[in-house]
Specification:
By secondary structure, the protein is of the alpha/beta class. The protein has 17 helices and 15 strands. Bound molecules: D-serine. D-serine binds at residues 33, 96, 124, 173.
């Protein structure tokens, strides 16, 4: 990519940018929450929309000069609603975390009870982990998965009866099985609680119709716009029409100031791309690749957490399999150019910074065009790397193999 002006004006940032471009081109991103956006999305991000303040919403702004920002945000909203069949969309949240916080603030009072999935069982930090701001404001009670990887909806219903939550939260960042949305919704209705789903990880798979759509079942659905959806970093909140005003007020002026219009422009571009037929193929292939990875790693005797995957990622208990920590596994894979992240497994007894597992995702390699054949090859590379992590010669050979594969499936060429 050309960065002729930056090259002259800021050599330090230019050097870091070149380094990151090379890292992404010559290595494989297998962090489940990452992806490669299109050049059109990148172009939209680097535009003069970054100069503009647009507090408010289309047609109701606090500053002048909004002809084109209104056009962009209106398009982003319309495309987001069409993509997911939603009644209302707010495209201003700066991230998934701020989308979740704004959603909580729209419907909860301080001290209200929320049921959310435990972090080590796949839930997200913002679903009630004690270190977060929301956990200081609201009373989170966290539910867990069963040893076979399923969710016991009877137990969830009993918990809801006991705890009397105002909100029941579904969603995850490291859970690999399909949730039963109808059951969540029924339990919330019985408990007279709101229902909310954080679909950040799987939004692209929902948009591509490879996974069921949670929108009809929940009062509120939040998402990020990167990950499987392959847009810029950011968030969106979808809701039923009766909550639209509360959600909008909660995002602005409740939580945020001026929206980032260059990012909203890039979101609109990404939604437009996801509405095209090619995105459906991408979503389907992502699921096939994840299944292939699960099968292949199981063949190499890896312990797959939750018993397998129904989405784009798998969680591997490397400690149980090889007696190495997730941190060691992450480091070893880094040396051959495969980026994954260490991850807790359910009720992990190890520390979050040195847990028992790694999370591996296929959204980015699927964007590069890789299919089951390459996934099988990668499973072999991963296995060899982890088992022979102290053999420098083997690691060097594997690094070359990854580089070769990257060349065959280039990005931003
Ligand atoms: N950091 C994201 C992930 O990796 O899943 C969630 O926010």
């Amino acid at each position: 990519m050309q960065h002729n002006i930056l090259k002259k004006s800021d050599k330090e940032i230019y050097r870091a940018l070149l380094g990151e471009e090379r890292r992404q081109k010559e290595g494989l991103e297998m962090i489940a929450s990452e992806n490669y956006v299109s050049v059109a999305v990148l172009e939209a991000l680097g535009t003069v929309f970054t100069n503009k303040y647009s507090e408010g919403y289309p047609g109701r702004r606090y500053y002048g000069g909004q002809e084109f920002t209104d056009a962009v945000e209106t398009l982003a909203i319309a495309r987001a609603k069409k993509l997911f069949g939603a009644e209302h969309a707010n495209v201003q949240p700066l991230s998934g975390a701020s989308a979740n916080l704004a959603a909580y603030a729209a419907i909860l009072k301080p001290g209200d009870t929320v049921l959310g999935m435990d972090l080590s069982h796949g839930g997200h930090l913002t679903h009630g982990h004690p270190v977060t701001l929301s956990a200081q404001i609201y009373r989170f009670v966290r539910y867990k998965t069963e040893p076979d990887g399923s969710l016991d909806y009877k137990k969830l219903e009993t918990l809801a009866k006991k705890e009397k939550p105002r909100l029941i939260l579904a969603g995850f960042s490291a859970y690999t099985r399909q949730l039963d949305y109808a059951k969540f919704s029924a339990i919330a209705k019985k408990a007279q609680a709101y229902s909310m789903m954080d679909m950040a990880h799987i939004a692209g798979l929902v948009a591509g119709k490879a996974l069921p759509n949670p929108i009809p079942y929940f009062d509120i659905v939040t998402t990020t716009t990167h990950k499987t959806l392959r847009g810029p970093r950011g968030g969106v909140i979808f809701c039923k029409q009766e909550l639209a005003q509360a959600i909008d007020k909660s995002v602005f002026p409740g939580l945020q100031g001026g929206p980032h219009m260059h990012i909203i422009a890039a979101k609109a571009v990404a939604f437009g791309e996801a509405l095209k037929p090619a995105f459906k193929k991408y979503a389907e292939q992502t699921l096939k690749n994840a299944k292939a990875l699960e099968k292949e790693l199981a063949k190499h005797s890896y312990k797959i957490v939750f018993g397998g995957t129904d989405n784009h990622m798998i969680l591997v208990d490397v400690f149980a399999t090889l007696q190495i920590s997730g941190k060691e596994a992450e480091r070893a894979l880094d040396t051959v150019g495969i980026t994954v992240n260490k991850n807790m497994i359910p009720d992990d007894t190890r520390s979050p910074l040195d847990p028992s597992g790694i999370r591996i995702g296929v959204p980015a390699i699927t964007t590069r065009g890789m299919r089951e054949k390459e996934v099988r090859q990668l499973a072999r590379v991963i296995d060899k790397t982890l088992r022979q992590r102290d053999d420098q010669k083997t690691l060097k050979q594997l690094r070359e193999e990854v580089k070769k594969l990257c060349k065959k499936f280039p990005i931003y060429h």
